[in-house]
Amino acid sequence: MHDLFILTGASRGMGLAMARQLIAPGRVLLCLSRQSSAELTELASQRGATPLQWRIDLADTMAAAERLQHWLAQLDAPSLASATLINNAGVIPTIGPLDACPPDQLANALRVGLEAPMQLTAAFLRATGAWVDGGWRGPRKVLNISSGLGRRPMAAQAPYCAAKAGLDHFTRCSALDEAQREHGAKLVSLAPGVIDTDMQVQLRAGDPAAFPDRQRFVELQRQGQLSSPEDAARQVLAWLDRPDFGEQPVADVRD
Question: What is the pTM of this model?
Fold first, then answer.
């Protein structure tokens, strides 16, 4: 019996750290990212595991969802103990007021940060729901990586904040749907805290004239208040193992 994990945005930052920690014999790990990782391939070889890496543009949301659903339909469900989808990928476009954001970047941020998780979750629930209808009773979980910025507004961050707020609310709605179904999936939208990733570098490099909160992010780094990707990944993956996973569909690792 194997545990199945599907992870988006696995080529860098916390996503890469989660992938490192998930690679193990007895697990099936599928990573969806724009770039594949030679590090993950080497690590899997050392551990006797075989992760799958799809180079895929999540902004092409329907193609990504269709490919995932088709792949899931081909799996031998009885050989799986559990199935988990982790929607981690996200994009911060040009930092500044909404009217200063290039239209293509605005569209990409919403596609990758909100539409792709919704499409992938729908595909995952359809495919694994067919397993349940066939008698499979393993737990199914969806973990959406959200942000505190989805729960409070910030100037110059409208696309990112909107995507994360939408992520929270679609999780709430889908959790209600699944609660009505026998052997329904459990869903959580989880804020992972403030992490030392490329996104933080991007925020600290913002133009102070267009980004009033820039100094706050500079101070977070200066004061050593950023979690490492490895520590954040451990906290996020530990949330999946909680016996009460799904009871609160919107949560924060700091709660």
Answer: 0.95
